[in-house]
Amino acid sequence: MDLILCHTTADFDALGAAVGVARLLPGAKIVLTGGSHPAVRDFLALHRDEYPLIERRAVHPEQIRSLVVVDTQKRDRLGKAAEWLDLPQLEAICVYDHHVDVATDIPATQTRIASVGAATTLVVEELQQQNISLNSIEATVMALGIHVDTGSLTFAQATARDAIALSWLMEQGANLRVIRDYIDPGLSPELQELLTTALANLQTEIISGYNIAWVLLETSGYVMGLSSLASQLMEITESDALILAAQHSLDDERLTIIGRSRIPGTNLNQVFQEFGGGGHSQAASISLRGVDAKQTLTAILNRLKKQTPTPPIARDLMSSPVRTIRPETTIGEAQRILLRYGHSGLCVADSEGQLVGIVSRRDLDIALHHGFSHAPVKGYMKTNLKTITPTTTLPEIESLMVTYDIGRLPVLDSNELVGIVTRTDVLREIHQEETSREQTTRDSILPNYRQGAYQLLRDRLAPQLWELLIKAATHAEQRGWHLYLVGGAVRDLLLTYFRHDKYGSDKSSFQDNSALLTDLDLVVDGPVANNGNGAGVQLARELQQIYPNARLEVHGAFQTAALLWHKDPVFDSLWVDIATARTEFYPYPAANPEVEASSIRQDLYRRDFTINALAIRLTSPRAGELLDFFGGFLDLQAKQIRVLHANSFIEDPTRIYRAVRFAVRLDFTIEPETESYIRYCIASGIYNRLQGNKTPALSARLKGELKYILEAPYWQRALKLLSDLGALKCIHPTLELDRELWRQLRLLERCLQQKLDWQQNLHHWLLRLEAIVAYLSPEYRAQVATHLQLSEDSIKRLGALSEVQTKIEQLLPSYQQPSQIVQLLRCYDIPTLILIAIRTNQRVRRLIWQYFNFWRMVEPPLNGNDLKALGYKPGPIYRVILDDLLAATLDGAIERNANPEERRQWAIAFVQNRYPQ
């Protein structure tokens, strides 16, 4: 076990540095050795589950392998955890600190100590050196560490290195709103007096669940720093928006108004511009003279109130259905359920389904630490519960979580458990809103992209598809379900808007270029009926009543259905998949997933890459909202393929091929951390499972990915990238794309370009795959072909290839006449001869090419009807005569340039002479 120790009363710098080290040491756990600063405590009340934190009492000292100490060099600042520094089995002790004048008493084997403003900066520099990226939650707490310890780069100890580190953390997605919430700037004495006055006269109003505050102050003259006063006042009163007006009586009745807002969807710049002021969407100001202060303040407030949107409510955020356990469930079983579904806590319900408690991962960890794996959870669950209703607003939910340090809130409707809202749900919503505002500010490609997705969808889809989606959404709403367009359709719609001309239409022609997609993926977030049919199946049946020309296919095991049109006058050949929101669990690496009904968030999380985990909500409320829980929109803009979680390739190694396919097809790059996960997966040997028969579905998926790649025009680039990643080992451990294999594939392409397949019976992708498999040692070829579930013809061809090649190479060079060559080669099918041609020596290959291009097309001048007309009785003699006649023709017994009649007369004479009647 690797541990990262924060000093007692941990501040943001200690926590931020520890979170960064946890990325440097995958699997390491963070221990807060004592208490923490109040701001850190409040921060962790909401964010605790996002970091690998464990309790000190849950640690088994004998299991500790190494220690990392951050933001201190003194043992006495580690509390009781200092005893671990003396453990005999420790392999390493590393210290990160920025206090250079401190005498250390920690027996460190490695140190990272430098005169910078924050210890977090040192960790950031190592993350940059190792090319490790962060998610927004990690970047935010690390940025907080630097901000707080450097006074946002204003303290004397701040350095350029701190600024560079902060810049990088912003690129990684550090949330400025969260950072602002936890930084506490000081006020001058004059402003402190005004703060007291403002607090006494502050007025507030709740609008759509948001607290809007305002105050009008009277000052003798202009006061510097009113913006800081506004920010401080807003924090103290916990207001969501504040309008601070100050009238200066000795300065020509000058009126200064400052606005601050953190309400998503509001834009103070627009509000203040109407009065001649301006600023940013979340901060604006104006200075006026000769106006009525109260009327102006009221007018600005009214415009702000009109902008205030209805906040998300629990129904929009919650996960449903809720996975529950009984009070009698053991601690060990509850822990296994948490591991299976990736939860941080579980609801406990009695036999009648009534909620009786909640047990968290921390509760279970402590019980397991004390050896109570067989004890029932009822002895460890919390029974004094805070609950919410489906209409509880996001600000109220956030306040409950912070106030009571609650990680999850059950949603009750008439005392029935209908959903649960977790810290992660809240954080995702907050971060999405922040990302939306930042995106709107810095890039006008798709203004307000979360809400603009609906307009994009309507503009890009052909009218008949748009009508289909509207009807589907209407039926879903009538059932109380949510309906989403998900996956590739959303990705491609967004790409068509902002990609370069060579990939799609430019913006000038965008409005006139609607698309008739050939397949749509819809997900219904709804219940499973008593008959076992998911909401997706039920919706599909209703839509078939409206569109009787569509064929319905139902896959009950996965609660999915499909509507298919074939050469329809309206929809042409359209495929619409309608699935019930579901989650997947892989019982072991490379296994077939087990599927269960779940929520849209979990449904998107089970997907492969962030750019494919996007969804557009089609039902009200909030119809048209783009759901982007994992940063897929930004990855589209960055043109990168990023996997959703570290174990994705372990669970399904064929995703390696999907990553390569998307990267080459879209001209994207594979994000560095994703590439490292790919290489780790391959190095782990997980691909060996593909070589057995225990995972036929996995082999079928690999075959499907190979087909997609090898039939695409970019197959050569994709194959090279697979080789660079070492991913061809997923086909067989010995397979490599060396110069010889590449030469054979190029020869194959030359062969295919010669239009040998005039009957169009050859599958070019399959020939490419067979050429790759044929490069393996003979004993592996049929085995690999079988594992890839190729056809019986392919398996037999590859199994016999070595023997056939040996025979042809021995006989063919000794033949002098074309008829001998044709007689030998026509015994074998075209794919076999092609595979031999690209593998053999030049002389044999030239003869096979001649057979393909010339001799194979030669036919005898007479046919069976001619022989019958000459008086020959039908029978086996026909074959003998025609073969003999063909051989004579091939060997030049007749002048090739002779006209057809001369050739016919010669043939008649040849037959009558050789086969008299």
- Whole-Å distance between the termini? 95 Å
What is the alpha-carbon Rg in Å?
Answer: 36 Å
The major pleated sheet works out as: 7 strands, mixed
What proportion of the residues is helical, as a percent range? 40-55%
In what order do the strands lie side by side in the largest sheet?
Answer: 20-21-22-19-18-25-26
Based on CA inertia axes, which overall geometry fits? elongated
The parts where pLDDT drops under 50 for at least 5 residues are 437-450, 500-515, 585-591
Q: Helix count, per DSSP?
A: 36
The averaged pLDDT comes out at 85
Count of distinct strands? 28
Structural class by SSE content: alpha/beta
User: How large is the share of residues in beta strands?
Assistant: 5-15%
